[in-house]
Write a structure and sequence with these properties.
Blueprint lengths: L11 H15 L4 E7 L5 H14 L3 E6 L10 H12 L12 H4 L12 H4 L3 H15 L5 E6 L6 H13 L5 E8 L4 H11 L4 E4 L5 H12 L8 H11 L3 H13 L3 E3 L5 E3 L9 H12 L3 H13 L2 E3 H8 L3 H13 L3 E3 L6 E4 L2 H9 L3 H18 L7 H11 L3 H17 L3 H14 L6 H18 L5 H13 L4 H17 L3 H15 L5 H15 L7 H18 L3 H15 L4 H17 L3 H19 L3 H13 L2 H17 L3 H17 L3 H16 L4 H15 L7 H15 L3 H17 L12 H9 L4 H8 L7 H17 L3 H14 L4 H18 L4 H14 L3 H13 L16 H4 L5 H10 L5 H8 L3 H15 L4 H13 L1
Parallel strand pairs: 1-4, 1-5, 2-3, 3-4
Antiparallel strand pairs: 6-7, 8-10, 9-10
Helix pairs in contact: 1-2, 6-7, 7-8, 9-10, 9-11, 10-11, 11-12, 12-16, 13-15, 13-16, 14-17, 17-18, 18-19, 19-20, 19-21, 20-21, 21-22, 21-23, 22-23, 23-24, 23-25, 24-25, 25-26, 25-27, 26-27, 27-28, 27-29, 28-29, 29-30, 30-31, 31-32, 31-33, 32-33, 33-34, 33-35, 35-36, 37-39, 38-39, 39-40, 39-41, ...
Length: 974
């Protein structure tokens, strides 16, 4: 009989899906399939079937698996896949990869020039590099990437896979991945990908009775009719329909003489067939290993302790076996279908199935298994001093199995530190969390405190804040065990930083207060600097008119102390904060602070701090002159090093700039992506800012209802932080929405509220109106004159490009009011140059200054109004377009009638015969204001308003004005 069926049984639909996937990839229609099921169900067999078809059709094939040990090793399956391609000599020339060849140095050691870990820490960038390489190798006939055993995968590998899934369309790439049907991050990725149509999820089911009979026939090399019913029934019952177990039971039955060939070529059962599962599988495998001899059996058992996959060098070292016996054991194991070479990696072998290794281990007592695990751990350390790469977590796993919790904990901690330094923060969290658990009884409490501090840092980097309270309790427990108060204080600083990043300001402040209490009044620079820099950041969350001043004092003190104590990380953070705080009063000094921070980071090899300082410096440059070039460069740098939270901070600024530039579609794409991530991760600190920015996006398009809904969500999300965005949301959202509704009175009120919030709680968001738009509106209303103009222009923030356009328009109005016509005209020309990036603001400014320009006899008010009317009509903002037309008529200018405004009227109102102008009146009736106010906003006469109201009452069949207002509110606001 054969040990395996020559054909795959009971998987016709699955095979058809795989065939379709490969055919599509050959036609540059990439896709992915996840094969999910319990051990032995046939996932790998189906993947092998896909591999065979791919090779037969000339496709390039790559295969990688997650490591055999339980510990996650970042990017392991991709490294194996690429190395297998290189070993087969099928790696194409990589000129087409450009800079991404260097990025792939993270996976291909020969391509690493020493900078790969700095440049490829981001799964996004690495995912793009892998995508480009796969497209390159499959450019002629397509390629198949098989990734197996993803249930044990690391977060970084899953992030790369997610990126691939989102970008396979129009690529010559087929991805087939296998995993067990258990709750894990990989299964969640597969499920969500299938939901959004990015992949197909195939959950393999056990075989039915007829399929088990067909599988049995294939193994026994007889027709299905030649399989005894008793045998088929027994195998189906005892295997639960798992193909691997069917094959194992058949092999044991044949070996033990329970199956014989009949005279007609059929199969006959000798005596009754007695099996139990899984004991039957254990017996089958044990009997085959026993035939190899006791020494060979012991070798395989020790290999099973290492895992499903094992390196020969470690087995040789741990057993002391000579080369001849080891090779003889392997040959016999291959012949007995127990083991086979692990193709992607030389010197490694693998058991035929995970159940094979588990069956060998089933015969060991816990003490025997612990002893063997200890021997294997010692062997690895002897062979690989310092435990580079994956050897460190492997020995940690073996030490834990061997019952040496302290050794395991220290090695997991070392592996976690290395992962964090390599940019694999997700893997670092997993490793450091295991270390922290294993070291609970470590008598070296200082070391345990260091591990916990590293874990808190990694948790903050990944935005994982759910367990912070539990870790805070651990800090208290270590304090009770007499951990040095300075170290306890340092842990509280880490907790404060994590709580701050999570947006939980009160908890963060409490940890800072505890740290200060522990340090006392005689603390040195090295202890106080980290406390002061966190406290400075937290000051910005306080509701206090002195918060900017207080934050500046703390940051200045922290920067000086950090430089004296030679704490470059703290010095960088303090200088970055000082740069942000300096923006309002001195842009050059702000840039200088960021330059100093970048230099310190450069001198000390601190990649993240260097890139974040570049981002902040780029932000100041953008505020000063409107250029986003440096911001985009900073974003690319952040992507290269995997600083994902920083990427979203840059995106927040780019999204706001897109709004100010009236690039609304691009702004929506940026903000929606940022919101999706921050909502999913429950990052309240970022979510409120992005929601406020989204409200600004809605406001700048005149969508009040959407703006109000978004601001309400921001208030619910923000909690303590929501007040920080109030000047921002009132100044850039509510005020602009009112201006686009031609409600100058409401705009003045909203902006006054923004200024009041800023006075109570000064903001570092300098585009909210205090140093620009507020001056212009005040000058237009007559509230502000030259004295206020001089006070505003004395601030550096008034020179920021967004603010400067309004300041220059206000200056022009003041000059025109004083009869300085040429100076006023020249100032408008300067404002036009400044505002060239901001079309909505510029046209709104023209509409607002046209009236005083006409009244004071300067400028070109009619031309300005005509330009603004055309802009706002095309933008669909009819209140301003209508106001411009009315003002032009009042100035005696000819105005062409717009005939296409009816699309602004909702369909159900158009059916009533309501005209565009009547709709504009109807919208204002919602606020229950009088005819004079409506006339003023629409720039028509009160008598005309009265006629429109009467017409509306007739068309809507409302008995009076009050009823009409109620109808308008219901019809227009739902």
């Amino acid at each position: 009989m054969q040990t395996r069926s020559p054909t795959v049984v009971g998987r016709d639909r699955e095979i058809e899906s795989l065939h379709r996937l490969l055919a599509d990839a050959g036609g540059r229609r990439g896709g992915a399939i996840f094969l999910v099921g319990e051990p032995g169900i046939g996932k790998s067999r189906l993947a092998a079937t896909a591999t065979t078809q791919a090779l037969d059709s000339g496709m390039t094939m790559l295969r990688g698996r997650v490591g055999a040990i339980g510990t996650m090793v970042a990017f392991r399956p991709f490294t194996e896949a690429l190395l297998s391609l290189i070993r087969r000599g099928e790696m194409p020339t990589t000129e087409g990869l450009g800079p991404y060849r260097q990025v792939l140095g993270r996976l291909v050691p020969d391509w690493d020039d020493g900078t790969a870990h700095d440049t490829a820490a981001s799964p996004v960038v690495l995912g793009e590099a892998v995508l480009r390489l796969l497209a390159l190798v499959g450019r002629e006939r397509g390629c198949l990437l098989v990734l197996e055993d993803l249930h044990g995968s690391d977060p970084e590998t899953l992030a790369v896979i997610e990126y691939l899934l989102d970008n396979l369309e129009d690529q010559p790439i087929a991805l087939v991945a296998t995993m067990r049907s258990e709750t894990c991050a990989a299964y969640e990725l597969a499920r969500l990908s299938a939901q959004r149509g990015a992949a197909e999820l195939i959950e393999l089911q056990p075989l039915g009775r007829s399929e088990v009979a067909e599988l049995t026939a294939g193994c026994l090399e007889v027709p299905v009719s030649g399989v005894p019913a008793q045998l088929a029934d027994q195998l189906w019952n005892d295997s639960a329909g798992i193909p691997f177990i069917v094959e194992e039971l058949l092999q044991e039955a044949s070996r033990s003489g329970q199956l014989v060939a009949g005279p007609d070529g059929s199969v006959q059962v000798v005596d009754d067939l007695h099996t139990n599962v899984p004991p039957a599988v254990v017996r089958s495998i044990s009997s085959r290993t026993a035939q190899l001899g006791p020494q060979s059996r012991d070798i395989l058992v020790l290999a099973a302790v290492i895992g499903h996959r094992f390196p020969l060098s470690v087995v040789r070292q741990a057993t002391g076996t000579d080369e001849r016996l080891l090779l003889a054991t392997l040959r016999a194991g291959v012949a007995a279908q127990l083991v086979g070479p692990d193709e992607p990696v030389p010197d490694w072998y693998a058991f035929r199935h995970p159940l094979t290794a588990e069956s060998l281990l089933a015969g060991l007592t816990p003490t025997e298994r612990a002893t063997l695990a200890g021997r294997c751990a010692d062997a690895v350390e002897e062979l690989h001093p310092g435990l580079p790469g994956e050897w460190c977590p492997m020995v940690a796993e073996l030490a834990e199995t061997g019952g040496d919790a302290l050794r395991a904990g220290r090695l997991f901690a070392l592996a976690g530190h290395r992962s964090f330094d390599d940019g694999s923060a997700g893997s670092a969290v997993n490793l450091l969390d295991r270390a922290n658990t294993l070291l609970a009884a470590d008598p070296d409490i200082d070391h345990r405190a260091d591990v916990l501090g590293s874990l808190l840092l990694a948790l903050s980097a990944t935005g994982t804040f759910e367990q912070i309270a539990a870790h805070a309790a651990t800090v208290d427990e270590m304090a009770d065990r007499n951990l040095d108060s300075r170290k306890v204080a340092a842990l509280h600083v880490q907790l404060a930083n994590a709580e701050m990043m999570a947006g939980r300001w009160s908890a963060a402040l409490a940890h800072v207060a505890t740290a200060r209490s522990l340090l006392g009044s005689d603390a040195g620079d090295a202890d106080l600097a980290p406390v002061d820099v966190v406290a400075a950041n937290l000051e910005l969350a306080r509701k206090s008119p002195r918060r900017i001043e207080a934050a500046t004092e703390l940051a200045t003190r922290a920067a000086a102390a950090a430089e004296r104590a030679e704490l470059p990380e703290v010095a960088c953070e303090a200088l970055q904060l000082l740069g942000i705080l300096a923006r309002e009063h001195d842009l050059d000094q702000s840039i200088d602070y960021f330059h100093r921070a970048r230099q310190i980071a450069e001198d000390h090899g601190m990649t993240f701090q260097r890139v974040s300082s570049h981002f902040f410096q780029a932000g100041t440059i953008c505020l000063a002159n409107g250029s986003i070039i440096e911001l985009e460069r900073a974003r690319q740098q952040a992507l290269r090093i995997g600083a994902i939270p920083l990427v979203y901070e840059v995106d927040g600024v780019l999204g706001q700039q897109a709004i100010l530039r009236a690039e609304y579609q691009r702004a929506a794409e940026i903000i929606d992506e940022c919101l999706e991530v921050t909502r999913r991760l429950r990052l309240g600190r970022s979510a409120t800012y992005f929601l406020a920015t989204k409200a600004i996006l809605e406001a700048h398009q005149g969508r009040r209802s959407a703006m109000e809904a978004t601001l309400a969500e921001a208030a619910n999300w923000g909690g303590e932080r929501a007040s920080y965005e109030l000047p921002y949301s009132y100044g850039l959202a509510r005020t602009f929405c009112a201006l686009l509704e031609e409600n100058r009175e409401l705009a003045d009120s909203e902006l006054a509220q923004a200024l009041a919030y800023d006075a109570q709680n000064p903001t570092t968001l300098h585009t909210s109106g205090k140093n620009g738009l507020a001056l212009l509106l005040g000058v237009l209303s007559g509230r502000n004159g030259w004295a206020h103009f001089e006070a505003v222009t004395a601030t550096a923030a008034s020179g920021m490009r967004w603010n400067k356009q309004f300041v220059q328009l206000a200056h022009a109005v003041l000059l025109g009011r004083d009869g300085q016509v040429e100076a006023a005209n020249a100032m408008v020309r300067e404002a036009m140059e400044t505002a060239s990036l901001f079309p909505l603001a510029w046209n709104l400014g023209l509409r607002m200054v046209a009236e005083p320009a006409h009244a004071d006899g300067w400028g070109e008010p009619v031309a300005w109004l005509r330009q603004a009317e055309d802009y706002f009509h095309n933008a669909g903002i009819q209140p301003v377009a209508s106001a411009c037309r009315s003002l032009m008529r009042q100035l005696g200018a000819t105005v062409s009638q717009r005939r296409n405004g009816s699309e602004q009227v909702p369909a159900h109102l158009r059916q009533l015969g309501i005209t565009t102008r009547e709709y504009e009146v109807c919208r204002l009736l919602v606020d229950r204001i009088g005819n004079k106010s409506i006339a003023s906003r629409l720039h028509i006469s009160p008598r005309t308003v009265e006629k429109h109201v009467a017409s509306l009452m007739t068309k809507t069949q409302q008995p009076d004005r009050e009823a009409l207002s109620s109808f308008a509110r219901t019809a227009l606001q739902g």
